[in-house]
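pls design
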């Protein structure tokens, strides 16, 4: 059996880090943003079968970050409700919701776009 690993997300991570460094965001928020991005990226690969999710990192203002991850699957994500507290998967969207200020998913012409927004302290 051939093992498949998720696509390399280092370019997206570096783009995110660079944008937040230019805006002087604190390390803790950068780490939160990285983890939320990683969850959305892996979800696009794992659940939508996308080998190259499209990532867009935008600073709406110097204090508000918006990150979106697009794939070609039209099914919008739904957080899982797991009765098994020891399950090894199914918590990604809950984690994104906990780490960010706003989170959602929108249908797109060829699939969907899942996004989050994170605000820096004033």
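designed seq:
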């Amino acid at each position: 059996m051939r093992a498949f690993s998720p696509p390399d997300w280092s370019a997206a991570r570096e783009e995110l880090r660079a944008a937040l460094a230019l805006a002087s965001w604190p390390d803790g928020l950068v780490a939160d943003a990285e983890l939320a991005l990683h969850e959305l990226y892996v979800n696009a690969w794992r659940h939508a079968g996308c080998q190259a999710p499209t990532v867009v990192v935008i600073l709406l203002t110097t204090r508000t970050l918006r990150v979106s991850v697009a794939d070609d699957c039209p099914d919008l994500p739904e957080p899982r409700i797991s009765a098994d507290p020891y399950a090894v998967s199914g918590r990604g969207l809950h984690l994104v919701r906990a780490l960010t200020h706003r989170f959602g998913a929108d249908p797109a012409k060829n699939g969907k776009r899942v996004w989050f927004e994170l605000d820096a302290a004033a």
